[in-house]
TrEMBL record:
Residues 343-354 have a biased composition (Low complexity). The keyword Secreted does not apply. This is ABC transporter ATP-binding protein. The keyword Transmembrane helix does not apply. Residues 2-227 form the ABC transporter domain. CDD domains: ABC_BcrA_bacitracin_resist. It comes from Streptomyces armeniacus. PROSITE patterns: ABC_TRANSPORTER_2 (PS50893).
Amino acid sequence: MIELEGLTKRYGEKTAVDHLTFSVRPGVVTGFLGPNGAGKSTTMRLMLGLDSPTSGDVRIDGKHYDQLQEPLNYIGALLEAKSVHGGRTAYNHLLCLAQSNGIPDRRVSEVLDMVGLSAVAKKRPKGFSLGMGQRLGIAAALLGDPKILMFDEPVNGLDPEGIHWVRNLMQQLAAEGRTVFVSSHLMSEMSVTAEHLVVIGQGKLMADTSMADFIAENSRTYVRVRTPEPERFRDALGTEGINAAPTSDGSLEVDGQPAARVGELAAHHRIVLHELSPQKASLEEAFMRLTAESVEYHAHTQAQTQAQGPGGMPGAPPIAPQGAPPPGAPPQAPPPPDGGGQPPQWGAGWKEGR
Ligand SMILES: Nc1ncnc2c1ncn2[C@@H]1O[C@H](COP(=O)(O)OP(=O)(O)OP(=O)(O)O)[C@@H](O)[C@H]1O
């Protein structure tokens, strides 16, 4: 269990993490979402004791990270793609990590096998693809067989087989009773991997709820209807006080009614239906709806600019907040944090024979 209490991190004028209070429970995969610059990586670094909070607290099984007697038994993490010692093979890279943390050598071969890198164990990671580098980072996170795992964008650079493998690995680790906290921008993947969601925007907590509730609460559900008599059906629904909105493709969108009721009304009025399908929003739609106001960096097309004028999207926050890059430019890379990008330094507490 990871518990955050009023966690806050300021870099000068910038509040990267703003009074975050939530818990990450064992036994389920918890997804961590937020637009670019929302503060996800900063939060993860604070959780791992790689950066210190301005105020507030993070506890891991009730203790601060630096109070953990055997941190390797508690937390393994994959943060941003790490630079690996160029001269060492993948095996030796993990062996160094293992030996400096009291982990038995045999564990290196085990984790290389788990992540599918055994065949390239004697190769140098500098020639690895992005996906292979991710697998090596995941191997390092698993090395200490920790109870808590934290992954920042673990599927970055992985091919479909790799993405599928990461999904199964996360779910298996959670099913073993571990705490699994994972960030990703791939919404479709997150929607089938995580059971619980924590969403932040501009450093603030926006949602801490189950995946199902998040989608239900932040999206519109409706029934799509196709009929050769759309006008007559609209009128028939209207007499029942039901709104049906026509769409450009000729279908009707009926709000607030179960599909069964819409079908029964069509039958009652002897109206032929060619389609009757309940529409549920995706995680991506729900996420965009919730976070629209907190997106810091908006790209926008020339057509949008011309249509909307210099004010940008109606109802949207200013496109270029103070100190931000110009619209459409990628966010600037933040300066490296204290010890940022380095794996957590595990103690020498490996228990033989676990
Ligand atoms: N060391 C730092 N010094 C100054 N500002 C920083 C530092 N680290 C992060 N920030 C700023 O804090 C904010 C949150 O950054 P963070 O990297 O945590 O966001 P994120 O949600 O992980 O973003 P992304 O999804 O783009 O990776 C950003 O505005 C970032 O520029």
